[in-house]
Structures are given as structure tokens and as C-alpha cells.
């Protein structure tokens, strides 16, 4: 979800070359789908745009935001960088495209009931009220509010099931949220939401980078927080069928799954 290779253009592009060589054996047989982060902004995203050939549409002819269908799920890849100075002129185009895309996806909800959206920047993560000057609080405060102002109502009105983001180098799983408040499902357990009535948010930015260890977790997690970790690791999602979606977080340090969540739907929100 953005910040690929740290950075693609570094050392005259050698870092990007080395990274693509590393993933070649996997990307040659499994589609490697990307979206841009702030570390792709250099040279007007030249290295990102020329190295990755993502699906294009009339609103994004260079593939900087797009969607695709896989089985019973509709995946949406958004470009959050347009809200922070890069190609700001794309903001209205992305909004119009997103509303049209999700409206169309909802006409196929019986066939593909799951809608999952991804960006680089998060809409939600826990502010740390005990340490006011840390980077986390800018990302989870001012930046997150910008994204919520632009996108949250669309996600809620269109029934987005899950939202994934990175940017902050940590892992945080949250429950169904709207307007910074928990929205109750028919059943909410530590690892289960039955028929959630708002979007479930996950921050998964702990894949690792050259800048050092991951960010410290918040000492004052919000009420909608379910699990935190700053272990290096990655997430795995399995959409089993029309009613069951499973997400788990794997810790590279512990070499095991350290968190998981089931979303179960017996009916659509519409």
C-alpha cells in the first residue's frame, strides 16, 4: 500500500531495480497490484508510473487509482497523495470516479458482497495523548482528519466493508467506525464482527524500511482499538465466500499469526 522499496528512484534507480528483481519470481505468477505512497512522489511519480502498469480508466489514464473484482470481492485502490500536494488537480476526478465505481459495485452486491478499499494514508489510528510531539500524532491527527473529511462519508454511504492503509510503521486493528465513534454490529467480539454497520479499519504499515524499527504503539489507544503491534510483519486476507472474510496479521519476529479478525455477513447493509 505504497512506499515501495524506499525509494524506487534512490541511487539513480538501482534501489528500484533491485527490488523488482527480488519480487520477480512472485510477481511473474501472482499479480502484484500497487498504489502510490508519499515515497513515490519524487519526479512527479515518474518511477512509480513507469515501473508499474496498473489498470487505467478515463479518470486516471496513468493508473494512479483503480478498482478490480476478485471472486466475491470488489477492491478499490485509491491515491491518497493527491490530498497532500501531489497532482492536486486529480482530487475531483478521483472523487467522481470513486462515487461512480462504488455505486456500480453496489448494483452487483449479490454477486460480489464485499467491498475493500485501500490507500497509503490512514483515516484512523490511535493518537498518543501522552507524547504530543511524536510523528504518530501528526499522521493520526491532522493528516487522518483530511482523509476523513474527503472520504469517510462516501465509505459509509456506499457500505465499504473494510479499509486498509499503511504510512505509519505499525499495525493497528480497529472495529467498525464512523465519525470517530464505534458503530455496533449485531455481534462484536475480540475477533469477530457479525453484520457490521460501518467500515472496519486496519492500519498495516509494519513491513519494514531502511529508516529503522517500526513506530512505537500508542500508549493511549482509542476505544475503537482492538489490537496493536510494532513487530515487522504483513497481513493476509482470505475472502472465503459471500458471507465470510478473514484477515490475519503475521509477525516475522515471532514467526506466527499474532492477530486475526472475521467479518461475517448474513445480509447486506443495503
Automatic annotation (TrEMBL):
<dbReference type="InterPro" id="IPR025733">
    <property type="entry name" value="PAPs_C"/>
</dbReference>
<dbReference type="Pfam" id="PF00149">
    <property type="entry name" value="Metallophos"/>
</dbReference>
<dbReference type="InterPro" id="IPR029052">
    <property type="entry name" value="Metallo-depent_PP-like"/>
</dbReference>
<keyword id="KW-0325">Glycoprotein</keyword>
<dbReference type="InterPro" id="IPR004843">
    <property type="entry name" value="Calcineurin-like_PHP"/>
</dbReference>
<dbReference type="GO" id="GO:0016787">
    <property type="term" value="F:hydrolase activity"/>
</dbReference>
<dbReference type="Pfam" id="PF14008">
    <property type="entry name" value="Metallophos_C"/>
</dbReference>
<dbReference type="InterPro" id="IPR041792">
    <property type="entry name" value="MPP_PAP"/>
</dbReference>
<feature type="domain" description="Calcineurin-like phosphoesterase">
    <location>
        <begin position="13"/>
        <end position="171"/>
    </location>
</feature>
<feature type="domain" description="Purple acid phosphatase C-terminal">
    <location>
        <begin position="198"/>
        <end position="260"/>
    </location>
</feature>
<protein>
    <recommendedName>
        <fullName>Acid phosphatase</fullName>
    </recommendedName>
</protein>
Amino acid at each position: 500500500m505504497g512506499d515501495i522499496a524506499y525509494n524506487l528512484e534512490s541511487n539513480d534507480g538501482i534501489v528500484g531495480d533491485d527490488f523488482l528483481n527480488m519480487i520477480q519470481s512472485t510477481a511473474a505468477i501472482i499479480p502484484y497490484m500497487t498504489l502510490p505512497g508519499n515515497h513515490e512522489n519524487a519526479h512527479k511519480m515518474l518511477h512509480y508510473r513507469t515501473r508499474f502498469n496498473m489498470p487505467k480508466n478515463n479518470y486516471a489514464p496513468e493508473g494512479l487509482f483503480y478498482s478490480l473484482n476478485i471472486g466475491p470481492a470488489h477492491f478499490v485502490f485509491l491515491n491518497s497523495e493527491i490530498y497532500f500536494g501531489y497532482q492536486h488537480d486529480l482530487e475531483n476526478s478521483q472523487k467522481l470516479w470513486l462515487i461512480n465505481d462504488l455505486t456500480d459495485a453496489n448494483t452487483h452486491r449479490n454477486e460480489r458482497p464485499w467491498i475493500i478499499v485501500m490507500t497509503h494514508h490512514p483515516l484512523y489510528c490511535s493518537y498518543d495523548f501522552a507524547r504530543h510531539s511524536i510523528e504518530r500524532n501528526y499522521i493520526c491527527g491532522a493528516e487522518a482528519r483530511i482523509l476523513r473529511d474527503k472520504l469517510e462519508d462516501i465509505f459509509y454511504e456506499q457500505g465499504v466493508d473494510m479499509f486498509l492503509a499503511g504510512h505509519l510503521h505499525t499495525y493497528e486493528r480497529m472495529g467498525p467506525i464512523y465519525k470517530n465513534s464505534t458503530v455496533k454490529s449485531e455481534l462484536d467480539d475480540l475477533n469477530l464482527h457479525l453484520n457490521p454497520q460501518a467500515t472496519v479499519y486496519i492500519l498495516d504499515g509494519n513491513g519494514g524500511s531502511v529508516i529503522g524499527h517500526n513506530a512505537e504503539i500508542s500508549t493511549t489507544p482509542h476505544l475503537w482499538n482492538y489490537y496493536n503491534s510494532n513487530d515487522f510483519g504483513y497481513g493476509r486476507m482470505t475472502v472465503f465466500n459471500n458471507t465470510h472474510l478473514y484477515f490475519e496479521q503475521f509477525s516475522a519476529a515471532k514467526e506466527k499469526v499474532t492477530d486475526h479478525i472475521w467479518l461475517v455477513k448474513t445480509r447486506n447493509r443495503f
